[in-house]
Amino acid sequence: MRTRLVLIGSKGGPAIRPGGPSPTSSLLEIGGRTIVVDCGLGVTRGLTDAGVNLKVLDIVFITHLHSDHVLELGPLIHTAWTAGLATTVRIFGPPGTRDYWHGFLQAMKFDIDIRIVDEGRPDLRDLVDIIEFGEGAVWTEGGLTVSALRVDHPPVTDCFALRFDHAGASVVFSADTAYFPPLADFAAGADILVHEAMLAEGVDRLVARTGNGARLKEHLLASHSFAEEAGQIAAAAGVGRLVLHHLIPADDPSIGEADWTAATRKSWAGALTIASDGLVVELADESSA
Question: What is the DSSP letter of 125?
Answer without folding.
Answer: G
